[in-house]
Structure formats: structure tokens, C-alpha cells
Amino acid sequence: MSFWTNARRAVLAVSVLLALQAAALADVNTIRARVEALATADFAAKEAIVSELAAMGDATAVPALRAFGDGDLQLRKSDGKVVIAVRDGKLYRASDPITGEDLGEVDRKLLDKIRVNNNLRRAVRAAIGSLTLLSKDPGVRRQAAESVLKSRDPGAIDTLDEAIAAETVPAIRRLLEQAKAAAVLQTDRPEAEKLAAVRVIAERGDQEAKDILAAVAASAEGDVKTAAAKAIALIEQTLAMWAAVQNVWYGLSLGSVLLLAAIGLAITFGVMGVINMAHGEMVMIGAYVTFMVQELIRTSAPWLFDVSLVIALPLAFLTAGAVGVAIERGIIRWLYGRPLETLLATWGLSLILQQAVRSLFGPTNREVGAPSWMSGAFDLGGLTLTYGRVWIIVFAIAVFALLVVVLKRTAFGLQMRAVTQNRRMASSMGIRTTWVDALTFGLGSGVAGVAGVALSQIDNVSPNLGQSYIIDSFMVVVFGGVGNLWGTLVGALTLGVVNKFLEPYAGAVLGKILVLVFIILFIQKRPRGMFALKGRAVES
Amino acid sequence: MKAHFHTKLAAAAVAAGTLFGAHAVSAAETIKVGVLHSLSGTMAISETTLKDAMLMLIEQQNAKGGLLGKKLEPVVVDPASNWPLFAEKARELIAGQKVAAVFGCWTSVSRKSVLPVFEELNSILFYPVQYEGEESQRNVFYTGAAPNQQAIPAVDYLRDVEGVKRWVLAGTDYVYPRTTNKILEQYLKDSGVPAEDIMINYTPFGHSDWQTIVAEIKKFGSAGKKTAVVSTINGDANVPFYKELANQGIKAEDIPVVAFSVGEEELAGIDTGPLVGHLAAWNYFMSVDAPENAAFIKDWQAFTKNDKRVSNDPMEAHYIGFNMWVKAVEVAGTTDPDKVIDALIGVTVPNLTGGYSAMMPNHHITKPVLIGEIQDNGQFDVVWKTPGLVPGDAWSDFLPDSKPLIADWRKPMSCGNFNTATGKCGGKGS
């Protein structure tokens, strides 16, 4: 009895397995046929194929779809086979789009890329989302849920139900429910269900939620419309609050850039009193050093790329510092006490440096990449903070702190302050004032070079890089108070925040003008800036 | 490097010619062609390339035997991105060097500053860059795109293919973006877009802190309607703009950006990985699959001795303009400006996208309009193309003041701003 039952069960199991396998095989073949068809279809037909693949609900198609969306799905001209081809050095490595089997290396000329456009990329993202909702990897599931939330595809509702039932991670479960709600709102399901969906979306409370609800409010009627409108009003309140916080953050971020650009000038202009119009070019030199370091790393040691900026920092400091010392020894030391000549000479020098870099590196922008730890963003409440900006703020503060320590706690800092406060007295105390001058100028320039490393991450690396910062730098130093590092810090951050609060209301152009007017008025009232130096040093 | 060598060589030749008193002979044996592009200052980034392209075209023409049996001689001057200096250098080229034609300028303000000089000394200028239109001058030939050859088709593409309903018009604060956006705003309103679905934003030259504006675009885009950005942001400001877009995670699938001033050359300074799918509208892309283009790129990379050197749209404009000028001089049998200006109208030459471009009576040319998507290798993939050639329209049909104006430099009209409403030459109000 039991033997027969077992045998029958075994037979049954085997035949079911076989049938499943056959079905799977058929599926694989249809998927392959569909993928192959992508090669010859036009954009509209490609879109139809993608939605067909999504409707099949078989995750086998995911690698092919992903490659298609990324532009890696290519036609091998020799035999007309569709392959996934990824750049590998000079050649492309081809693999089968369904099985992933390695098909060897192919020359680029023998491949024809299967073209995609934005509509297709959107469709592919949605398709991959609905196909990977049941994936074992929680990271993939989260991404899938986010994609479906964006695509709001009603066709995915059944899969979403299945996924919600199976989900064990609460955060992903919530995301899946939101995705389902977004999809439900696109259908003509009963009002009660839609109202529940509006509630689920409203809980999200961010811009994405507002986007979804705004679409609902525009198209729906009756209770759903009012519920959506009410939810939008609530979300807008929270968003407005976050917007204020965001402005402060943007202001600090702009302030930190200003601080970096100005802090070297705070030494050369603030402490030494040299009007150095070539200051911006020191920043530019720092940026070009970064470019050269990255270029070297790219060609000879690619694995070092993530630390390229760390390597560039000391080099930029030394290069810009050396140029600074050379400028001081060659030009500025002959012009102490003659501000107008210094101004003209350094301005001419800045043009010479720009043109020199232009002749050496060419007039076009150079590409400086962002290391992985500086790219991307993360969400903090309603804020989106980009890693690059966070690091620049941290870096600016670190540079500032270091400079304060050098000035206040080292022998060199002491000599420097002595020389700037009373040159003759310092000299008679045995300080070699000329060397202190040169080194101070070198320090200021070196710090500007370090700033260039950071600015290469957010701005163009071109010969004109420095020009755009020179006015702002002077503004910060004068506003903060000449000869005072703390003044520079507070000045930079204040100007940054003020600028960013003005920008949304006045626009970028008018905002900048208003800031300038504000500074002019401020200087009328307090000619020595926010933190004026007091005492005898001022008189000289 | 080679280009510099050439400039020096040309300068040396001129100097030697003057020194040895062989001036008359050299003037008789060569036809001088002026190249008026900034080699220093802010615009050098874009214009140096065009200078090199001109030197290559002239060298190629000389290899083919020159023009009218004479060799062409390039005369390169550097207006240093300084607008008044453009006028001075133009005068030096025309009056001092007696060039037969000038190829140059970039930005409308530089063109406007040399206009009176070309009018006064009666010479010919080929202007190779897309511009805001609203101009047609007897001595100038506009080989770049007018707004209807770039901006309007781009907006059509976004609206019809990508289903965009909400628009951000973002630009640098100067004449080209302001005029283009005025035209686009009117065009969008005419096609039924309500005013609250259009956001216009201007930024100063070289703007580098885009955090607030990108956040605003994001906010504007979350109103339940498909949103796109139409960017007339110029030059250097683009790199930080695109970097900020990438950082804040705005993908082309969500909010596409279509740019009118971003080409292969501008993308050279950015990692384009995160920008895939953002768009540009031009009349030429380096990736266009045409035999003329392949040959041109091969020559260009050989000439610059750099196999990574990219080509771009204004270079194609110079290619077309130069060939048109050569053809017109051959037809006229002389380099006399009046005869060449008349002969240029109607001249048809191959462009680099596999078709032909013709010079129209309004001194603009016919071009195809291409929409390209940025790829991760810094190139563009053409995703859409106008079915035929689009003739450049000097006076926009979407600005009430310009609507009745037409330009036709053929006799008997010979007018750059003929008012069809009043039947008089002289622009609006006449």
C-alpha cells in the first residue's frame, strides 16, 4: 500500500517536474525569441516587447533587460546573435543574454548597439522592478519596490500582493504597500480601496508622495480627490519646513566652498596685506594637480583611484606653495607697501598663469572623477544630502582648524604674527623676516592649492577655474575682517547662508547683486569687517 | 601643437613677406582667409577648436589645388574673448590683411560687435554657432542653427515622444537664452500649456552652486505631470549643473534635460555615466553614421594628431560654410565680396549627416535637426531626426514683433527685415 502510494507519488513528482521543465524551456525559448527581436524592432515595437517580457513574469529575462536598459545589449554582426557586451579594456566581453554563458571577446566594430531611449529605459526599469519583486535578495527587492513605486504600473498589483504576503523585512514591506497603493490609484478600483491607498501614500510624506497624489488629485473625482488634496496640503507643510532646513544646509555648503577659496587669501591678504589677484590661479593649480594625479592613477594604478584625492592633497599643497614662494621671491617682495603695483602685477601674473595652463593642458575642461565615497546622496528626514558636499564641509572645517593651530601653536605661526605686527622689532629679535614673508605667502598659496583639490569635485577643471572665485574670496575676507581667520570662517558661512536664502525668492542673479549691495553697505558701517583687529597692529 | 606651429608659420610667412618686399607678389598669389576666434580668455575653451578646424579645411582645400588657381592663406588673430577687441581684430583682418572672407565669432555679443565693421568695410562673415535669430545682415552668413532649427524641434520631441507636460526653461542670463526662452514660452503657450506649468530660471555666467536650483527643479517636477528641463545654460556652468543633477539622483527617465549648448566638447570634462539619457538638440553629432562624417573625423583626428579628439556641431557649420564660400567664389570667379554675397545664395553643399545644405535668401541655411541622448562614452545616440531639412528662420513666428518680418537678400528686395504688414524694409514699426 505504502509502497504503491510512494511510487505513484514519485511518478507524479517526476512527471510534474518534467512538465515544469518543458514549460520553463518553452519560456526560455520565447524569452530568447523576444530578446532577439529587440535587435530589429523600432522604439515603439521595443516598448511592446519589454512589456511582453514583463507580463511573462519570468525573472530569466532580467539580465537581458538590464543590459538592454544600460545599452550593453548588442548585435554581433558576424552571426546576427544578440549578446550582452561589456567593455573590457580595448575589447568587449560578450555573454549570452539568457544563460550568461561567456562568448569570448569581441571587437567594438563587430558589434551593433541595440538602441534605447528614455521611454524604453523607463519601461525597462518598471519591467525589472515587477520581475524582481520576489527576489531572495532584500536589496534587490527594495530596488524593485522603488521602481514599481515610480512606474505605478497597475499590471504589477498581483505580484505585489504576493510579495507583500511573503515579505519579512518591515521597511521593504511598507515600501511594497506604498508601491501597491500607487498602482491601485491608477486603476478604477472601488473608492474605499483608493481612499486607503491615498492614506498609505500620504504616510510617505515626501516629494514622491506629493507627485503621486497630485496626479490623483488632477484626475480623480469625489472623495478620493478631496482626500488627495488634503494629503497634499499636509505634505506641503512638512516639505516647507524641510525646505528651510535645506536652505541652511545649502548655505553651509556654499559657505564651506567660499571658506576654502578664501582661507588662503585670509593669510596672504588678511595677515600679510598683499592684494594677490593671482590667488584664484593657486586654486586652479591645485585642481590641475588633482587631474594629473588621477590621470597617472588611471593609466598605471587604477585600484588607487578611491584615494586619489588623498594623494593629491599634499602634492597640491607643495606645488601651489612652491609657486607661491616663487611669486613672493620673484615679484611681490619688491612691491611691499605699494598696493596698487602689487595689484596690477599679480593680476598680470594671473593672466600669465592662466594662459600657461591653457597652452600646457589645452583650453578644454579636464575630467576629474569623484571617488566612490564622494558620489551619491543619502536621505536625512526630508533632506537629500550629497556625500560630496558633506565631505567638502568636513574638509573645509579641518583645513580651517589646522591653520588656526599652525598660527597659534607653532613657532612658525608665532614668527609670522610677530613679523606682520611689527617687522622691525621681529627682525631685531633675530627672525629672518624675508624668509617668514616667503613662507607665509607659500602657506597661503599652498592652502589655496588644497582648496583646488576639493573644488575640482564640484566645478570645472579649466584654466578659468580661479577667476570665478577671486571676487568671492576678497568679499569674504573683507566682510569677515582683514587679518582674522575666525572672521573669514563666520564671513564665509554667513554669506553662504544669506545667498541661499535669497536665491529662491530673488533668483540667482538678483541674489548675488543683493549680497554685494549688502556687503557694500556693511563696509560703510564697519570698514574693518565683522571682526576688526584692535590694537597697535591696526595703526601701521 | 601643430596648430600653433601653423599659426607661427603663417605669421612668419607674413613677416618674411613684408621684410623682403615681396608683398605684392604674395598678395597676388594667395587668397587670405581670416579666422576670428578667441584663443585666450573664457571663450578659448570652445573657439580654439574652431580655429583648428578652419586651419584643417584650408589645408585640405590647398591640397586640392587651392581656389581660382591660388593658394589659400589663413590669417589667425586672437580677439581674447574681449568683445570690443573682436571689432578691432575684424578691422585689422579686413582693412589691414585684406582677407577675402572671415570665419569666426562665438556668442551673439561678439557678432554684434563686429557687425558694423563688416558693414562699413563690406566683407563677409560666416558665423558658425546656434543663436537666437532676430537678425539677418547682408554681410553675415549664419551657418549655425536658428531657434526653429534647434529649440522648437527639441520641445516637439519632448512633448510628442516623451509626453512632457511641465517645462523648466533654465538658462544663463544673457541674450541668447533670454530670446530663445521668450520664443519657447510663447510657443508652449500657443500649444496649450498653462502658465503655471512653465518655470523660467536664469543664472549668472559660470554659476557653480546649483544645489538650490536643482532642488527647485525636483520640486517643480513633483506635481504629478511629466516634467522636462530645456537648458540654454552656457559653457562652463554646465559641468557643475550636470554634476549636481547626478548627485541629487535626477535620472533622465524621471526628468530629462535637453540642452542646446552642450556638445561632445563640453561633455569631455564630465563623467557621463550618471547622465545617460539626457538630451541635446543639434544639427550634427559626432556619432552620426555617414561616410562624409567618418572621413571628416578621420581627417580631423589625423590633423590634430589625437585619436580621441571629438568633433562637434559648430565645426560642421564651419565645414558647410567654408565649402559654400569656396563654391560661391568658384561660381563668381572672383573673391569680390559683392559678387560672392550674391553667388552664395542658393549654393548647395554636402553636410556631414549624409545630406545637403543650401544657403537661403535670408542668409541662413537648411539643416536636419537631430535629437541625441548622452551615452556613457561621452557621445550622443541619435534617437530622433526631423524627416527633412529645416530652413533657418531669421525672424521668429512666435514673437509678435517679428512675426511679419522676412529677410530676402536677393534683388530687388535686398532686405534683412522686410515688414510684410507695412510693405517696407526696416523692421518692426516701419
Automatic annotation (TrEMBL), chain A:
<comment type="similarity">
    <text>Belongs to the binding-protein-dependent transport system permease family. LivHM subfamily.</text>
</comment>
<feature type="transmembrane region" description="Helical">
    <location>
        <begin position="474"/>
        <end position="498"/>
    </location>
</feature>
<dbReference type="InterPro" id="IPR001851">
    <property type="entry name" value="ABC_transp_permease"/>
</dbReference>
<feature type="transmembrane region" description="Helical">
    <location>
        <begin position="248"/>
        <end position="275"/>
    </location>
</feature>
<feature type="transmembrane region" description="Helical">
    <location>
        <begin position="307"/>
        <end position="327"/>
    </location>
</feature>
<protein>
    <submittedName>
        <fullName>Branched-chain amino acid ABC transporter permease</fullName>
    </submittedName>
</protein>
<dbReference type="GO" id="GO:0006865">
    <property type="term" value="P:amino acid transport"/>
</dbReference>
<dbReference type="InterPro" id="IPR017779">
    <property type="entry name" value="ABC_UrtB_bac"/>
</dbReference>
<dbReference type="InterPro" id="IPR052157">
    <property type="entry name" value="BCAA_transport_permease"/>
</dbReference>
<dbReference type="GO" id="GO:0005886">
    <property type="term" value="C:plasma membrane"/>
</dbReference>
<feature type="transmembrane region" description="Helical">
    <location>
        <begin position="390"/>
        <end position="407"/>
    </location>
</feature>
<keyword id="KW-0472">Membrane</keyword>
<feature type="signal peptide">
    <location>
        <begin position="1"/>
        <end position="26"/>
    </location>
</feature>
<keyword id="KW-1003">Cell membrane</keyword>
<dbReference type="GO" id="GO:0022857">
    <property type="term" value="F:transmembrane transporter activity"/>
</dbReference>
<keyword id="KW-0813">Transport</keyword>
<keyword id="KW-0812">Transmembrane</keyword>
<keyword id="KW-1133">Transmembrane helix</keyword>
<feature type="transmembrane region" description="Helical">
    <location>
        <begin position="339"/>
        <end position="357"/>
    </location>
</feature>
<keyword id="KW-0732">Signal</keyword>
<dbReference type="InterPro" id="IPR016024">
    <property type="entry name" value="ARM-type_fold"/>
</dbReference>
<keyword id="KW-0029">Amino-acid transport</keyword>
From TrEMBL, chain B:
<keyword id="KW-0732">Signal</keyword>
<feature type="signal peptide">
    <location>
        <begin position="1"/>
        <end position="27"/>
    </location>
</feature>
<dbReference type="InterPro" id="IPR028082">
    <property type="entry name" value="Peripla_BP_I"/>
</dbReference>
<dbReference type="InterPro" id="IPR017777">
    <property type="entry name" value="ABC_urea-bd_UrtA"/>
</dbReference>
<protein>
    <submittedName>
        <fullName>Urea ABC transporter substrate-binding protein</fullName>
    </submittedName>
</protein>
<dbReference type="Pfam" id="PF13433">
    <property type="entry name" value="Peripla_BP_5"/>
</dbReference>
